[in-house]
Amino acid sequence: MNQKTVFSIALALLAVVFAGATLFYTTQQEQQAAERAQANQASLMRMHSPTLGNPSAPVVIVEFLDPACETCSAFYPRVKEMMAANPDRIRLVLRYAPFHRGSDKVVAVLEAARKQGKFWPALEALLASQAEWAPHHTPQVDLVWKPLEPVGLNMEQMAFDMTTPEIARTIAQDLDDAKALNVTKTPEFFVNGKPLPSFGYAQLRELVDAELERTAR
Amino acid sequence: MNSRQDSVATSPAWLLVFAAWLVAAASTLGALFFGEVMQFPICRLCWYQRILMFPLALILPLGLFPFDPRVVRYALPLAVLGLGVAVFHQLLVAGVIPETIQPCTQGVPCSTTVVTWFGFLTIPWLSVAAFFSIVALLVAAHRRSSR
Question: Which is the CATH superfamily of the domain at A42-216?
Answer without folding.
Answer: Glutaredoxin (3.40.30.10)
